[in-house]
């Protein structure tokens, strides 16, 4: 079985560094846990760092978080499906919303559960994912403020996730100005201006973050140690919070080029081969890991001499060339992962999860 390992010292280092930087700017930040896919072993490690808030996009994950620590504040970070209204009110202290019909249902459910449900209303600033259109913001808030058992605690936006629209000082100033406009119009205090995510962090160090932005939602930079704005490792943080290893289950010297008539493989791909490789051989290792578990384009061998030959549903084949390092069946190959690689591996029930 393949294994994904959470290196808790690297995680703690990144958390402490981020917490320090955000505290300097009087910014509250929330740890996004969706990458952990509800795994309680890993969630316990995150919660042991005592974050003020945690965010997730799956109600089942928020339930797992509340079972570990009922007191931690939880945020549901996508528009609420109608079928999930009751569980969102039960397990999310705050939810992010864009639809008035849904918020009315949240109001009704909050009354049933004898709770005040907090919401952050998301505004569209160009990414075209979730968000109320800017010209409708005032009328939208007017309707929401009239609802029982609903407390509007914030205004927010999402950038970079769908089309890669980067945050800018101008866009975030707009968000902060909407907060001021709403407060003046309705005489209501808005606690959070949630304009920050991992991709926004570099604006802090460039002194380009508007002072009104006081809330961040951070996942990738915490877990991957990346500067998401530049799509590069951050020299301030640790990488390899997660590593993956997979066992070699076959290792045989075989021809470089397959023989026979070619059709398409299970993914519908067809292949061509360099005629210069005909007659050549290399050591091919089959790993106990496949497309069902990971996408090979998002995992990276620690041994730089290894390259991928291909993959099927539950096996990946790698090229060990002349096998100078003398790998053998039963050995493990280790990989780094990017964000999508980690997310896919965490979602596989066939990969063991370990804390080290």
TrEMBL record:
Q: What EC number(s) is this enzyme filed under?
A: 5.1.1.1
The question of whether Zinc-finger is a record keyword is answered with no
The coiled-coil regions, if any, are none
Identify the residues that the record assigns to the Alanine racemase N-terminal domain, covering every copy.
46-225
**Protein name according to UniProt:** Alanine racemase
- Which metal ions or organic cofactors does this protein require, according to UniProt? pyridoxal 5'-phosphate
Identify a single GO molecular function assigned to this protein: alanine racemase activity
Keyword Lipoprotein in the entry? The reply is: no
Q: Which organism is the protein's source? A: Paenimyroides aestuarii
The cross-references to Gene3D superfamilies, in alphabetical order and at most eight, read: Alanine racemase
| Protein keywords | Isomerase, Pyridoxal phosphate
Top EC class of this enzyme: isomerase
Q: Which Pfam families match?
A: Ala_racemase_N
